[in-house]
Design brief:
- It contains four helices and five strands; from the N terminus they run E-E-E-E-E-H-H-H-H.
- With about 220 residues, it is an alpha+beta fold.
- It has a five-stranded antiparallel sheet with strand order 3-2-1-4-5.
- A hairpin with a 5-residue loop joins strand 4 and strand 5.
- It starts with a strand and ends in a 9-residue tail after the last helix.
């Protein structure tokens, strides 16, 4: 591909439709109006971008002559598009990485519950409760998202938080991550984290000698 050069129109004969461009090296290059790609006539003194080619007789001439400002604008727009595309790719990559981490955290939590039950340190009914309430919470988040999209009756945020306190915080976490519901509202997220702390405190109470049947 022929390299593009930058220069300044030094001479222009409008009646004959040709002129000369002075390159940065100080050389004078002929160009015809048919090679000027702007929807107007060239102006003396304006800066342009062009390539060097040959006419039918083998003489050097400037081709694909474009306004420098137009080329710079197009390049800026292209660079902006590239930056936006890269930001979207990075955001998507971060989002997918976050999905995997949260899913792993949820599976690990349930795995710990099962391990505690196997070691007879936790009632199996408690494990079943966490799994059940997690599924219910996820489904309610999904229902609430559909309601938001269809302008239907919404599930109160207090209900979602109560479900998290009751042990459905894993289902809530998975729903926020994979359904992208209630994942950007900072106030909701802070209360959600508080519900996780409260639930974990209750679980630790059970493990330290509390009566697990009190939750059933």
């Amino acid at each position: 591909m022929t390299a593009r050069q930058q220069g300044t129109i030094k001479k222009w004969q409008d009646d004959k439709g040709f002129g000369f461009i002075e390159t940065k090296a100080g050389e004078s290059v002929f160009f015809h109006v048919s090679e000027f790609k702007a929807p107007r006539r060239p102006d003396v003194g304006e800066q342009v971008v062009f390539t060097i080619g040959q006419d039918n007789q083998g003489r050097l001439q400037a081709q694909q002559v474009q306004e420098l400002g137009f080329v710079q604008q197009k390049m800026a727009e292209k660079n902006q598009q590239i930056r936006r595309r890269n930001r979207r790719r990075n955001a998507q990559a971060d989002f997918e990485a976050g999905q995997k981490k949260r899913l792993f955290l949820g599976i690990a939590f349930y795995g710990v519950l099962v391990l505690l039950a196997v070691m007879h340190k936790l009632n199996w009914l408690v494990v079943a409760w966490y799994v059940l309430i997690g599924i219910v919470t996820f489904l309610l988040y999904a229902k609430d998202k559909r309601a938001a999209q269809n302008n239907e009756w919404r599930t109160p945020e207090s209900t979602l938080h109560l479900l998290s306190i009751a042990g459905g915080w894993v289902g809530a976490m998975v729903a926020q991550t994979y359904l992208r519901h209630k994942s950007k509202k900072s106030e909701f997220r802070m209360i959600y984290y508080l519900t996780v702390v409260i639930n974990m405190a209750g679980l630790l109470f059970l493990l330290s000698g509390g009566d697990s049947s009190a939750l059933l």
